[in-house]
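FORM 12-B: Structure-to-Sequence Request
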């Protein structure tokens, strides 16, 4: 299927690896030019070079912390006029309710709620003026089914979800869609960190921790960044203009819910 977005330009945050890279690669495969952002220059430049060589699209890079005001300003200076925005940032650390202070919550809100809101605030007006735009926020299954040890993430991402629910319906008349992708466990560094925490807490091997987690997923495996990216690319396509304000689970069936 031709997604009809060749020649569009996308800002993909945290895209040097993991789910962000999966989204960047899928969009590049559809002929979308990219602005790629990540904190560390080396892996970012390596990923960008591979995408240029493989897909022949234009790729600009900005090594910056997208969750900081200065970092966002630098990224937005390069990405102004983007047709597509994919927001993404690493999740807060796991823990217990008794571990977290007000500062911990502020950091989580800054990274996983206020940063995507700031990016949308900056780019939505141009999309609306052009009469076309796509925003995909990478959030978490925790907004459908909270994960006890990820209380910081549960809180921040739920706030973003509420913001998107209203905003998506305000911009839809101008041809702009906003949707959220809710990943379950995928084969990324984030999954490794969560599995490592289980290893340390229970004194088991990584192989056993992964096998245990895979058994909780009806698909009996972790998701792949490439298949996550393909879903993102479809939401950014010309065919997805009637999908507005949705929260789409990509979790192999792990979240046991009817709606």
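FORM 12-B RESPONSE
SEQUENCE OUT:
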């Amino acid at each position: 299927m031709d997604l009809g977005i060749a020649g569009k330009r996308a800002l993909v945050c945290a895209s040097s690896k993991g789910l962000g890279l999966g989204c960047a690669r899928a969009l590049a495969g559809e002929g979308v030019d990219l602005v790629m952002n990540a904190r560390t220059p080396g892996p970012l430049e390596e990923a960008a070079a591979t995408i240029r060589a493989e897909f022949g699209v234009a790729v600009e890079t900005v090594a910056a912390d997208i969750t900081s005001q200065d970092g966002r300003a630098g990224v937005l200076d390069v990405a102004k006029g983007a047709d597509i925005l994919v927001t993404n940032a690493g999740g807060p650390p796991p823990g217990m309710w008794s571990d977290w202070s007000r500062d911990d919550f502020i950091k989580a809100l800054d990274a996983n709620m206020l940063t995507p809101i700031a990016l949308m605030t900056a780019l939505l007006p141009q999309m609306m003026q052009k009469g076309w735009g796509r925003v995909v926020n990478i959030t978490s299954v925790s907004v459908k089914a909270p994960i006890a040890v990820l209380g910081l993430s549960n809180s921040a991402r739920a706030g973003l979800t509420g913001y998107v629910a209203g905003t998506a319906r305000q911009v839809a008349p101008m041809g702009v869609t906003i949707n959220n992708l809710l990943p379950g466990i995928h084969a990324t560094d984030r999954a490794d960190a969560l599995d490592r925490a289980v290893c340390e807490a229970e004194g088991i091997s990584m192989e056993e921790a992964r096998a245990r987690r895979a058994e909780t997923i009806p698909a009996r495996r972790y998701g792949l960044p490439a298949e996550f990216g393909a879903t993102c690319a479809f939401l950014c396509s010309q065919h997805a203009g009637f999908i507005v304000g949705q929260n789409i689970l990509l979790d192999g069936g792990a979240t046991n819910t009817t709606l």
